[in-house]
C-alpha cells in the first residue's frame, strides 16, 4: 500500500505546527531539604504511555568533566544516592542537590519489557528545579512488540529544493490525550526513538513504529541554516489508512547573510 506523503512547513506563517504546551505542575509534595529538589523518574510503556511499576533506577552525578557517564574505573562519576523503584503510578522520587549534572540509569526493567534504547539519560538539575521539581521520562518497549509502521523524514532547502544532510529530528507519540505535544511532566507524551539525522540524500527513517498519532520535532539544522521558529509539527496518524508509512517533507530556510562593514 502506498505511503501517505505529507509536506511539512516548519517555518513561516503557514507553518503546520502544534506548539508544545507547558507541562502540568507536579502535585505539591513536602518541601525538599535546603539545597535539594524533588526529582521524579517516570517509567512508561513506549507505545501506550501506560505507567510501569517495577523499574529500578540509579542516579549518578557528573564529576569527572568527561562527556557521558563513566560508572567504573579510575575517575568514574559519582553515585550520590541509592536507587529507587517505580510505584503503581510508574514514579519514583529522589532529592539530589541542585546545580549539578546527573545521569539516570535504568538498571532493572518491568517484567516483560526491554531496556530503553539509550543506556542512560543525562540532565542538568538547575536551581530552578527547587521551585517545582523535575520529571525525567524513561519509556520501555515490550519484549514481544513488533510493528511494521515507519516514518521517513525528508529535508530540503526551502529555496532551491536541494536535499539537506545533517538535520536532526525526534519523533513523539501522542499518549496523554491532551491537545498538542507535552515533552515534560508526569503526563508527558512519548519520544519513540533517539534523534535521527538526515543522510546525504536528506532523509532519515524511524522504523518499527506502532499505530498512533505522531509529532515531528526539529532539534538541529545543517550549518548555514536556521532553526524553525515553530519546531513541532503534527500530529499525523499512522495506521492502516496511511499504509502504516508516512513520508514527511521538511523545508528549511538558509540563514540570511549579514554584509560585513564596508561591503556594498
Which keywords apply here?
1 helix; 264 residues; Immunoglobulin-like; five-stranded antiparallel beta sheet; 16 strands; globular; mainly beta; four-stranded mixed beta sheet; 39% strand; 2 domains
Low-confidence stretches: 4-28
Return the CATH architecture of the largest domain: Sandwich
What value does the Rg take, in angstroms? 20 Å
Give the amount of beta strand, in percent: 35-45%
Largest sheet: 5 strands, antiparallel
Counted up, domains total 2
CATH class of the largest domain: Mainly Beta
What is the CATH T-level topology of the largest domain?
Immunoglobulin-like
Secondary structure category: mainly beta
Q: Total number of β-strand segments?
A: 16
What characteristic shape results from the CA principal axes? globular
Topology:
Layout: E1 4-9, E2 39-45, E3 56-61, E4 78-85, E5 91-94, E6 100-108, E7 120-125, H1 129-132, E8 134-140, E9 149-157, E10 168-173, E11 190-191, E12 196-197, E13 203-209, E14 212-220, E15 232-238, E16 245-252
Parallel strand pairs: 1-16, 2-8, 9-16
Antiparallel strand pairs: 2-5, 3-4, 3-6, 6-7, 9-13, 10-11, 10-12, 10-14, 14-15
Can you tell me about this structure?
The protein is built from one helix and 16 strands. The chain is mainly β and 264 residues long. The protein folds into two domains: 4-20 and 146-252, Immunoglobulins (Immunoglobulin-like), CATH 2.60.40; 39-140, Immunoglobulins (Immunoglobulin-like, Sandwich). Strands 10, 11, 12, 14 and 15 form a five-stranded antiparallel β-sheet that branches. A four-stranded mixed β-sheet has the order 1-16-9-13, with no helix packed on it. A four-stranded antiparallel β-sheet has the order 4-3-6-7, with no helix packed on it.
Amino acid at each position: 500500500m502506498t505511503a501517505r506523503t505529507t509536506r511539512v512547513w516548519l517555518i513561516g506563517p503557514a507553518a503546520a505546527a502544534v506548539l508544545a504546551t507547558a507541562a502540568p505542575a507536579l502535585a505539591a509534595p513536602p518541601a525538599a531539604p535546603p539545597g535539594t529538589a524533588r526529582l521524579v523518574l517516570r517509567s512508561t510503556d513506549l507505545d501506550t504511555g501506560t505507567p510501569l511499576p517495577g523499574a529500578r533506577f540509579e542516579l549518578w552525578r557528573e564529576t569527572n568533566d568527561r562527556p557521558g557517564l563513566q560508572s567504573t574505573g579510575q575517575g568514574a562519576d559519582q553515585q550520590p544516592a541509592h536507587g529507587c523503584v517505580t510505584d503503581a503510578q510508574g514514579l519514583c522520587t529522589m532529592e539530589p542537590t541542585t546545580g549539578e549534572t546527573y545521569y539516570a540509569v535504568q538498571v532493572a526493567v518491568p517484567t516483560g519489557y526491554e531496556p530503553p534504547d539509550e543506556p542512560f539519560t543525562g540532565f542538568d538539575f538547575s536551581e530552578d528545579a527547587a521551585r517545582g521539581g523535575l520529571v525525567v521520562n524513561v519509556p520501555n518497549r515490550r519484549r514481544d512488540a513488533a510493528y511494521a509502521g515507519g516514518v521517513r523524514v525528508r529535508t530540503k532547502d526551502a529555496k532551491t529544493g536541494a536535499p539537506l544532510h545533517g538535520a536532526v529530528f525526534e519523533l513523539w507519540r501522542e499518549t496523554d490525550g491532551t491537545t498538542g505535544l507535552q515533552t515534560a511532566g508526569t503526563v508527558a507524551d512519548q519520544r519513540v526513538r533517539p534523534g535521527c539525522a538526515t543522510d546525504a540524500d536528506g532523509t532519515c527513517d524511524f522504523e518499527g513504529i506502532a499505530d498512533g498519532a505522531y509529532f515531528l520535532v526539529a532539534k538541529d539544522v545543517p550549518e548555514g541554516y536556521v532553526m524553525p521558529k515553530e519546531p513541532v509539527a503534527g500530529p499525523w496518524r499512522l495506521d492502516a489508512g496511511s499504509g502504516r508509512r508516512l513520508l514527511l517533507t521538511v523545508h528549511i530556510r538558509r540563514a540570511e547573510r549579514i554584509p560585513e562593514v564596508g561591503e556594498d
